[in-house]
């Protein structure tokens, strides 16, 4: 059984996920990510002013947040599998 995650593991999950974005109030990006197993993550970013809002930056930052959440979830899942296997 493997005992570590790689960036490739996380990217593969992200590639298999369904991702949708919305812009709210002219300055907030919301990202919805449905993982391959059906679990859903939601992240958001915002700008102080509509004048400073850049949707492409908002999407990029949201995806970074989603990716960090996947790392946490997959890390927990792997640690739990290893714990059960060694119990």
Structure description:
The protein has 87 residues and is an alpha+beta fold. Helices cover 46% and strands 24% of the residues. It has two helices and three strands, in the order αβββα. Strands 1-2-3 form a three-stranded antiparallel sheet, covered by helices on one side. Strand 1 (18-24) and strand 2 form a beta hairpin. The longest helix is centred in the last third of the chain and has 31 residues, at 55-85. The radius of gyration is 16 Å and the shape is elongated. The model has no long low-confidence stretch (mean pLDDT 97). Keywords: Plasmid. This is Gp49 family protein. It comes from Apilactobacillus apisilvae.
């Amino acid at each position: 059984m493997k005992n570590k995650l790689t960036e490739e593991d996380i990217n593969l999950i992200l590639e298999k996920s369904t991702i949708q974005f919305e812009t709210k109030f002219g300055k907030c990006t919301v990202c919805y990510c449905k993982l391959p197993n059906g679990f859903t993550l939601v992240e958001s970013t915002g700008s102080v002013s509509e004048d400073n809002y850049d949707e492409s930056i908002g999407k990029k930052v949201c995806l970074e947040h989603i990716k960090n959440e996947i790392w946490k979830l997959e890390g927990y899942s792997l640690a739990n599998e290893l714990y059960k296997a060694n119990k």
